[in-house]
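A further point concerns the way the authors explain their paired sequence and structure data. Since the whole study asks how a given chain folds, the encoding of that fold should be made plain. A single example would do more here than another paragraph of explanation. An entry of this sort, consisting of the sequence and the corresponding backbone structure tokens, reads as follows:

_____
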Amino acid sequence: MDWRGRFVSDQHFEFVKTNGVTLRVATAGDGPLVVLVHGFPESWYSWRHQIKALSEAGYRVAAPDVRGYGESERPEPVEAYDLESLTGDIAGLAEALSPGEKAVVVGHDWGAPIAWNTARLHTDKFRAVAGLSVPYMPMGDVMFLDMVHKVFTERGLFFYQVYFQDIGPPEAELEADPAATIRKFYYAISGDAPDGTWPTDKKHGDTLLHRLPEPPMPLPWLDADDVAYYDSQFRKSGFRGPLNRYRNHARDYAFLKNHPANPVIQQPSLYIGGTKDLVLKMFQGDIVAAMKPNLAGLRGCHLLEGCGHWTQQERPEEVNRYLIDWLGGL
């Protein structure tokens, strides 16, 4: 696959040293810096449509492979993937690419908590923040995994983040055929999948891919070339680094609960989600109303009808329009 044919002519890779690691970063365009942070199991490539649109709209776009992914550095220890390290990576990347200037950071999935908290913890380096899929919520009184154990594990039910805690078996399952992992996982929580494609009755002890069907490829937003590129990246990197992100819940909880930074994000902010995104089913009530007290500069909250979890890949035109309109008003 020649992925370059799908993007702007000046897109290229830079290797940037930041916070003790080297990140591979897809960059394009000139102008104010916008950093795009992907989630699990993704890549800089997850932002392929936004790199083109934002760079052509007059921004310098930087989409890194998060540490552990693609051709970025892959430290071995679990603790190397805690939120303190990852927010430090993005802050250092912004400073390296645009020294002395404040950047904008946008994140999707795990990239959203990284983006939200990078803006919160590094206010001197970021002038605005947007999150896709995962809303911003400060740490509550109960650590996430403790809550999950009560709701799922103690009732004998499967929850993927519990499965990810054991080192070895999840890596072996996902690495056995990365292309199949991408196809099945992406489809199961996308807006194209019929209700019930992601099983809610799996038992504790089941695996991630158990009972996930093969999708009817190509999907409207994911074709064989896209899957081939992701497959090539995970064959290089493996899944240990990506999975280690999930193994830091307790460390992240302690870090954020004890950090003196204001938990209310002050910079201008934006949220984009999908009405079929299963992430939002983890939250009760009106998610917009719940976020507003914690986002002092919230300037837009958009729920895309019928969109699943892969927000910027499933609905690139809408996401690009909302991002460009928001960026233009900063």
Remarks:
- The chain is about 35% helix and 20% strand.
- The radius of gyration is 18 Å.
- The mean pLDDT is 96.
- The beta strands are 12-18, 21-28, 33-37, 60-64, 103-108, 126-132, 265-274, 295-304.
